[in-house]
Design brief:
This protein has about 210 residues and is of the alpha+beta class. The chain is built from four helices and 13 strands. The protein is globular.
Length: about 210
Amino acid sequence: MKWLRFFFICCLLGLCSPVLRSQTPASVLENVSKALLEGQGVSADFVINSVDVQSRGSILLKGDKFVLDTEGARTFFDGKTQWTYLFKSNEVNISNPEQEEIQFIHPYAWLTSYKTKYRVKFGKAKLYRGQNIFEVVMTAKQPGDIICIVVYVLKESYLPIRLSMVGNTEDVTTISILKYKKDQLHADNEFTFDVSKYPGCEVIDLR
């Protein structure tokens, strides 16, 4: 579940920003990061393809807050506290993620950590589905759960439209955006779990 959260959340990060005359892999990631931090709310639908598994979901983003819907679960994060609601068991798990855990759920953790944790370079791909892209390859400097992340970013908008990640088992997971809307207005309370909306819900507080 953590990997899936990380995957699709990562591929959603992007809003419009001006195209620079001279680009480097780092500047592309910086532009995407700035666009996210400075932009309004975002909503998107996505599809995740991993080994023998395909799943769909949707997400609302606002700065470091998000609501993530995947098959069987809904996750809320208000920048500090995380609520993971499981539909089948009608229970919610509450936690305050540690720094290491945040990399799997934080909407732009991979962008803010690339300067210290990854080596970045441009890949060879220039087109994706007929659109001009930057292909940015991020390779981990130290051994860990993530070996490599490959991001396709639209040149005209700095919207990441595809992300592939290779884990330490060499399995590849790919996330693609199906529908994307920016400048969405979402109230802060949308990113917290309201137990009154889930009658009979069991609350498991892990903080």
